[in-house]
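Researcher: Here's a chain I'd like modeled. Treat it as a single chain, no partners, no ligands.
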Amino acid sequence: MSNHTGGCLCGQIRYRINAEPGASRICWCRDCQKIASNGTANAMFPSAAIEVTGTLARHDKTADSGNTVTRSFCPTCGTQLFSDSSGRAGLTVVRLGTLDDPSSIKPTANIWRASAPGWACVDTSLETHDAAPVPAKK
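Model: Modeled as a single isolated chain. Structure tokens:
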């Protein structure tokens, strides 16, 4: 099992993840563009596998999907670390740039590509979805 560590810019928040990542994507939705001024590189992990040291601030917003998305960030430096959605209980999105080794997980897809600005550097070798990908049927 993988062990990933990371934290915020100022060091107030640290985390450890004891799990393998699920989906890893670059998201071009307008919300991600607003929090990063670009697309965000993310991976999903089981929420229970993430141990956080420090106190996170949170912001809730209704997404275009209708789900409530809770974004967690450092209250001191503002680093966006995680997001959770009412539409995927038990899974947490981790911002890959906050990992101590951000190269340890490579995104495999672009999502919300239709929302990307014309100047976006989109990796065309990755699977691409114009909006949110359709979840696999169980």
